[in-house]
Amino acid sequence: MVGAQLRDTAQELAAVLWREHTVYRERSGGMVIRGEHVRRWISLAPAGGRDEILVRAGRILDGGTTAPARSEAVVPLSAGTGVLAATCRRLLADAAGDAARPAPDRETAGRYQGSRKPRKFRKSARRNGRGRHTGFGSWVILVCVAGVIALFAYSSAMHG
What we know:
Elements: H1 2-17, E1 22-25, E2 31-35, E3 40-46, E4 52-59, E5 71-76, H2 81-100, H3 120-127, H4 136-159
Antiparallel strand pairs: 1-2, 2-3, 3-4, 4-5
Helix pairs in contact: 1-2
């Protein structure tokens, strides 16, 4: 019963939101509405409550793959298409706002950023074509370690 109601709701919602759209069922049983011309998608899935659906929105990337959902909300299924469409528009606006912000670089992704100052040493090392650990100090350490190993091997050979 919920699957058929979710499919009907997705069809109605798609017609309200976009003239051009594709509606299909996910493996998990939810419904996806893709708007290729606006490069956005919406997913409707059953939520924890009996009369609730989880609405998620995200972007469609180059090549047609979908980016992970940027925003989500739980909406009562009985709220009607108007309330659901308003929620979807808000989520789509959030997803569009996230697309406008520059993506964090790989060095700082997922880390706490206490200060917004860029790490100059690492970025300048990358620009010069050198790796992170190939500075003069690293070479000195490598030579010292090799010397200690050679000294150990020599003393073992002489006494053992």
